[in-house]
Model the fold of this input.
Amino acid sequence: MSKYIRINPSDNVAVALEPLASGTVIELSDGSVILKEDVPAGHKIALKDFSEGDNVIKYGYPVGHVTRDVAVGTCIDHNCLKTNLEGLLEYSYEPALTEIRPSAPRTFKGFRRRDGQAGVRNQLWIIPTVGCVNGVAQAIAEQLREEKAGCMGSVDAIVAFPHNYGCSQLGDDHQNTRNILADMVHHPNAGGVLIVSLGCENNQLGPFMELVGEVDAARVKTIETQKIEGDEVAVGLELVRSIFDVCSKDERTDIPVGELKIGLKCGGSDGLSGITANPLLGRFSDWIVSQGGTTVLTEVPEMFGAETILMNRCQDQETFEKTVRLINDFKEYFIKNEQPVYENPSPGNKAGGISTLEEKSLGCTQKCGCSIVRDVLLYGERLSKKGLNLLSAPGNDLVASTALAASGCQIVLFTTGRGTPFGSFVPTMKISSNSTLARRKPGWIDFNAGTIAEDEPVDAVSGRFIEFVLQVAEGMPVQSEKNGIREIAIFKKGVTL
Done:
């Protein structure tokens, strides 16, 4: 089994795939290096003597510069490596496009909705328009779950989605809340939806339903609690019973894989994320595109430092310009709030071997393979074009995963080197970058990509991964679903009244 890897022939660092002791010999095609100190798994090993200011090359690109002299055979981490990024940049479109060839079409068994969408789950959702009625929504869901225990039909979950918003918000924040909630009403994983409002909130039920637009009246119903005489939970329960009676009879049918929309996300990354789990998602993303399907990459701040790679993969000048706005708008957001644009990675990332934002971004963007970028979405916007899309959202795990699901993704694939138990409102599948995490947290991790670092052929892992995701699409629950963890988080960036 390999104990280290030099990712690109031009790299001047290698990465430890397991903890390496001082004295270990690193054999390279152009010579060998003897470690002068212990190096933790995921961390970088200097393959040359560095002078202060020299660039460190990883993935074939600079990931920052050393802040002091560094001897060959020693560890390079955040204590001696600093980002090269600063300020706003100007970009030019230099297309480097790779067409993904179609592959033999596959199908999965999903739920065909009346509007033509395909769902991978058949759930009944209770969505509050405002945080004031969270308790009512949760009570309705809990009572219906108790009532239907053991006789759910094809309904696999009854879930309320509490949140803190819908009132005391202004401008973009108010509209973001309305957009995300409206997106949820239309999501194909919901066989039915009860919308619970208060009556005096900013997110008024009437205008909100105008934003939602046309719905199936048998599957989407509303309640305005201030207008109810007496027990609003009892009234809501009657409504969800009628919705349940309809959606519990839904059946799975064969649907082309090309109708899958898959969100790509990472969090708690380590030094192996860009070597194992993220490239695995990249291969899967290209496969979905080859099927005529859709993948979505987000967490814009973790594109900084690798954005030109994505820009040059844009299908045309217009898409390139949208990507430039995507990047610069997020940088302006940091600047407007007087925060450093490049204050990343997190403490957990650094402990795992990621030292600068460029290094994190170059690993992060590998999740989208090499497909052409077909469109760029604003936060809260729903998908309209097949192929690889970029989506405006922050790096925060739950906020970004909620945004991916709201855009129409039926599944979110989430790679991690440190682990996390959270789940969004769609199946949120955790892929570990290392086998140690998979062994330690089997209740969190769904698929172990760490075997790639243990010399399992990438094609074999990729094949197993494709089949695993298709099983999830056909109803196999992921760990967060087994644990009953389904949440939403809405992006907020302004004043609360």
Q: What stands out?
A: The mean pLDDT is 96. The first helix runs from residue 134 to 148.
